[in-house]
């Protein structure tokens, strides 16, 4: 196994990018954390703290903040991507030559709006010579920076590279499991937000714990069904990037997607909810992309279909649940 | 498909047996609910209420309570088992001839202490000519009796019988999915209690949401690994009897097993905790049975091993978590 990377750059100084830089520093590296926000970089440089996204939490002193994207991309062979999925193309695109033969560890979830591309597909277009891996799993940034334990899935096509990156990140509190299933990890990370909306609706409708567990489980089952048609391994969905992340999203502190679902379950209109949330939750877009996949592949996804109906066709949450319960009786694994 | 059963008897008038009788009545049947407790039967007959286990909740008037086990077993072709697993042999054994060629729908979870038998194996000894199915999934009895929706897995070797029982129980709020994986459903139902203890420890140690999601996910992964060696289908663990029930157990109202784990995580001694709980949680026994299986089959189950160490060998919860995090780095699916 090759030794670790000389320098690693984390692109994106939001809460999760910052947490990953902190993890890398704790594992003995001196990561560069790039962000556009000068105030964030200055707070990291002067006080070892991301005052905007992780206020009050001390970062490892070996984290170096930077606002120079070219330098950050030039200096490192391993580039961690941690910016919003819809910005990946515009941030990395202009500097594509700097990604030549690099190792990209993507930690951003979601699907690019428009052509409905997974992040690996976006990078395959921008940087076809780079080696792409995806890191995903149950991980609130705050807990990671506090030094609480976490375990995630790291997927990439080359076992050797995956092991190298696994060793680079791992510590006594941050544990990575390798996988070769990039598609499965990406689909799980993106589509969990649709299930989070459905889970929120069940809360809003006050349908109880049994219904909550059922919608989470059957939601993941249909994501696995879609994933299989897209080339994923079904057992990936039983893993940290699948079940693990979904359980965290649906039972941990309220996410934007669950809040959206809950408000719809309480009978509020979509426009009212979006005003309250101050914008659109990511699951709103993912539901559209996934519906188009499901339709073109002929995959039955009843929970997705009902969430789509509520978001785009004005179905009421109560009617949606009722039609889910009244479907023809099925086998569990189809 | 055959029409439904003329009479169905539910053996066991605890909260779950009562809820199942209520479900059957709601689906148009006139179930006999057998229990030893005369006060319970009388409260059902006089007030349509199980005053002991589900006080304050109205049961469907078509539920008939009985204290006559022979009559209950004689009258029905379909027998629902809902008594504690350790009592199955002593309750049914003396009346084994009455189970000849019957259909048994078992809803009790756990492993028989001693020979470490699954419930299907116990019934195979008592009633070898009966057709055995197992019903399992996320289901608090109270919510079911309140009419809130629930979805469960029903597993049995014959598709025809499974569909018949599925149709018998199903309604607009109670939805069964069929499966042929009896072993997987039984293993999932029994071993979830070990993961519930581990999940409670993580709470007691205040390790956060990430660690909670990780222990639940990796716990289920190792149960699936054991299950596979015992003949189960790995994808069963992604289903309602696997992930669904585990999520409910680990995130719903505190169960005895989670309380046990939490108290151990807080540093209390096992004997203190057992005094507080007023008895032993089921996961305590299951951990022993599962450890012996894992050892004889050579299956690596690190979370089980640590739970066993805490329960039987005096390991501290903190040391257990620490050794889980310091294991060799792994692939996610082995």
General description of the model:
The structure is a homodimer of 334-residue chains. By secondary structure, chain A is of the alpha/beta class. In chain A, 51% of the residues lie in helices and 12% in strands. Chain A is built from 15 helices and 10 strands. Chain A has an 8-stranded mixed sheet, with helices on both faces. Chain A has a two-stranded antiparallel ribbon with strand order 6-7. In chain A, strand 1, helix 1 (15-26) and strand 2 (32-34) form a beta-alpha-beta unit. In chain A, helix 8 (182-204) packs parallel to helix 11, helix 8 (182-204) packs across helix 13 and helix 11 packs antiparallel against helix 12. Chain A is globular and about 60 Å long. The N and C termini of chain A lie far apart (41 Å). The mean pLDDT of chain A is 95. At the A-B interface, strand 9, helix 7, strand 10, helix 9 and helix 10 of A face strand 9, helix 7, strand 10, helix 9 and helix 10 of B.
Order of strands in the sheet with most strands of chain A: 3-2-1-4-5-8-9-10
Overall geometry of chain A comes to globular
Cα distance, first to last residue of chain A?
41 Å
Proportion of beta-strand residues of chain A: 5-15%
> From the helix content, strand content and strand pairing of chain A, which structural class follows?
alpha/beta
Order of helices and strands of chain A: EHEHEHEHEEEHEHEHEHHHHHHHH
The main β sheet of chain A shows up as: 8 strands, mixed
Contiguous helical run count of chain A: 15
Unreliable stretches of chain A: none
Mean pLDDT of chain A: 95
Q: Could you estimate the helical fraction of the residues of chain A in percent?
A: 40-55%
Number of strands of chain A: 10
Oligomer: homodimer
